[in-house]
Amino acid sequence: MHFTIKPVAMALTVALSTAAAAADKEPSVAELMEMIKAQQAMIDKQNQMIEQLSQKVEKVEEETVANTEAVEATVEAIETASTGEGTAWDRLSFGGYGELHYNNLDGSGGASDKKEIDFHRFVMFTGYEFTDDLRFFSELELEHSLSGDDKPGEVELEQAYIEYDFNDNYSGKVGLFLLPVGFLNETHEPPTFYGVERNNVEKNIIPTTWWEAGTGVLGKYDNGVSWGAYVHSGLKTSADKSYKIRNGRQKVAEAAADDLAYTANIKYTGVPGLELGATLQYQGDITQSEDPDAGSATLVEFHGAYQYEQFGLRTLFAIWDLDGSGPKAIGADEQYGFYVEPSWRLNESFGVFARFSEWDNQAGDDNSESEYSQYDFGVNWWLHPQVVLKADYQIQDNENGKEQEGVNLGMGYHF
């Protein structure tokens, strides 16, 4: 940037002429020297101002360049994120959950006591975003703290799938994933539900936690409707397992795949605090073609939840229909369960609940003495939205008379 002092010289000339005219006489040499010194001081001051102005302009130019580079870097980061060109750490996600249980239950009618403390589950999540539209998710679980020969626990891979978004409304997944049935099968982190133990209906009838390997298509819309349709590996039960659904989970461990299963679900969450859902599943042969006395199996499940201010309500009904003379002969052709769970949130930290559950998956003569029912009452104390302490009391009323009653305590977290 260039500056000129021409205006200053002109001003000096004018000032000298004016001073001489005003004095009406020729100035002395001394007076001329004083005037020149005064004008030189003015010139020096103006040059100093010009230098300061130049420095400010240079600083503005430097800031402009820096801002431009920052904007370009932000744009590049956004483009990198959308194309998956960032570092691995930028695209990696990590999480987990766990729960510790203490059971102090007295058995009666032939049922055993249960006095036990157990770190029931330790689970780690890992995810990776290849692009905005393509991602991976996995879930690895250690049950009962120890696994291996003669140990009570297991190490299980519960999820490992790839998900791809076709557009804003439709996506697909392929791999090993949890089936969308009921409340707890997909969302079972301890701070998200009441009670130390998972309820018996979703545990024994659905049966949570239940994962399979396959593929599916999902849809979701702005009106709160979402749905999914899947084809995947199926259950494998038999007369030796009393055709119980929970005993038929293969957990995708060299799972027999003679007969695949098909699942469809729909959910509505268009009203704040409300969730309504339903699931239908069909499998052509629940024994994987190994038992000629059994055949197809169909699951129908409905659930609903509503939270209005402090009051909450959950209810669920699920029923299996097993075809074949084998299940029918031992009363296992119809396995069902339901529960109703009202709750009251006292404040952000405390909530109380009650639950009545009834289920029947017990094979027995003419389906007699096979129903179970249980009452649960308890409290949740959230130390943080993701950390909870739990206490409840259970009372059983079973047709076979084998019952356990007592206290359950628990701690859970997720992140």
TrEMBL record:
Coiled-coil region: 29-70
Signal peptide region: 1-22
Top-level taxon of the source organism: Bacteria
Presence of the UniProt keyword Signal in the record: yes
Keyword presence, Secreted: no
Gene3D superfamilies: Porin (2.40.160.10)
Keywords (A to Z) from UniProt: Coiled coil, Signal
Protein name (record): Porin
